[in-house]
């Protein structure tokens, strides 16, 4: 069994175990590696963080398939835990979805979600979203399901209908997306705890995801609360972007004002610590393993 | 020679479609003054497919940067339908120009744009005008040329095409107007329009069956953009070479 197959199986087992799958969104390969080393069992690659990390741009449909898939490949190759992909709207029609499913499946992703926003999309917690028809989205889900080469490459449906046509419409859409073949369900940006509960109650037999954004539209709950409500997947999409921005800004302001990093040095890892973390010892050992040995002919 | 000089110096400019550094070098070495780095040829070469809408703009610009490593030969780039709305058009055009495009073509298809005649759907003209304005605004270099490609003569008819050309030219929304996806039954009406309007023709040699470049020039088209020529030729040559090698190996 190759790595891609192991990751797909591991992720599917997690999602259908009944336990909570707790994922953080990794903006890049380094943060993915940190997540893995600190104990996350699966990670997510998503548009908000990738747009910020790769383009220094907001999540407004500026990051395209080429950029997102490049970033996903780097993340997947950096870790040995499943990586789930935010495939936005599929970046086009059913033919584009067929291509992206092949690309993500071949690079070793554990699965992906497709959303029903119009392109260019917006972050689910931004205002001004618009959605495509339910029929068009069902067709996209079917295209994704038909394109996958392995049944354990999981397809999640995401609906942004809550903000446009309301809670019941979002639940109805998600039900139809599930009937069309989506293995997992995600209703984006419910505004109250009651609405979150209604979403979870509507899908007792399907793994449902909750999206925990700090200062977003949805109330911020703990993993324990989410799980008790009936959700089996939790993601934390922006926390690493916000933390990196905060700490980087604080450090750089100090450097501009003081001309030294002295005041911040206790908030950094050390040179040897980082080299150990990043795997310098392993790389050196690998080189040593293949060192040229003298040969007598 | 700059792209503007290329178009100024001849009454009919012929541009050949390319898909990578090798094909662009071939076009340059064979006496053409510009290349047309377009979705159809790139998708054929890079993805082994024939639907131009499968490629994403960042993949297109990455390949373009390889092309531009070889010098300053003017390359016109097919930005298709802007890969979304006006906002995406702005960023896509900006990235393509930064990657070395001397000219940008925008068409009036719905995103994702398609190559097959029966898969083409048009956007509202007002949306296309907004995309042209966004594309122009994204330019950093005033020498960069903007080409407006009208692909919907099947949908809006010859009269609709004429009105669109006139609007674009009168409002200086683009430096040049191209007409694509012309089917044989519409060709005579489109060719007749060249008596009063100045515009070029986009010919996909795999899809379209028109007269020779010489005959088309005689019809009055002021530019001819050919796609499919080199990618089809490459595929044919590869098949021939592989077949010859197989035959030799068997012997």
User: Which stretches of chain B are low in confidence, meaning pLDDT under 50 for 5 or more residues running?
Assistant: none
Q: Give me the CATH fold name of chain B.
A: TIM Barrel
Q: Specify the structural class of chain A.
A: alpha/beta
CATH superfamily of chain B: Phosphoenolpyruvate-binding domains
Overall form of chain A: globular
Largest chain interface and its two residue counts?
A-B, 16 and 20 residues
Q: Which CATH top level class of chain B fits?
A: Alpha Beta
Count the strands of chain B? Answer: 8
Main β sheet profile of chain A: 8 strands, parallel, barrel
Proportion in helices of chain A: 40-55%
Organism (chain B): Secundilactobacillus silagincola
Pfam families (chain B): PEP_mutase
Enzyme class (chain B): lyase
GO molecular function (chain B): 2,3-dimethylmalate lyase activity
Topology:
The complex is a heterodimer of chains A (297) and B (251).
Chain A: H1 3-15, E1 21-25, H2 29-37, E2 42-45, H3 47-55, H4 65-78, E3 83-86, H5 94-107, E4 111-115, H6 134-147, E5 154-159, H7 162-165, H8 167-179, E6 184-187, H9 193-202, E7 208-211, H10 223-229, E8 233-236, H11 239-258, H12 271-278, H13 280-289
Parallel strand pairs in A: 1-2, 1-8, 2-3, 3-4, 4-5, 5-6, 6-7, 7-8
Helix pairs in contact in A: 2-4, 4-5, 5-6
Chain B: H1 3-9, E1 13-18, H2 21-29, E2 35-37, H3 39-47, H4 57-68, E3 75-78, H5 86-98, E4 103-107, H6 125-138, E5 145-150, H7 153-170, E6 176-179, H8 184-193, E7 200-204, H9 213-219, E8 223-227, H10 229-250
Parallel strand pairs in B: 1-2, 1-8, 2-3, 3-4, 4-5, 5-6, 6-7, 7-8
Helix pairs in contact in B: 2-4, 3-10, 5-6, 7-8
GO molecular function (chain A): 2,3-dimethylmalate lyase activity
InterPro entries (chain A): ICL/PEPM, Isocitrate_lyase_ph_CS, Pyrv/PenolPyrv_kinase-like_dom, Pyrv_kinase-like_dom_sf
Keywords (chain A): Lyase
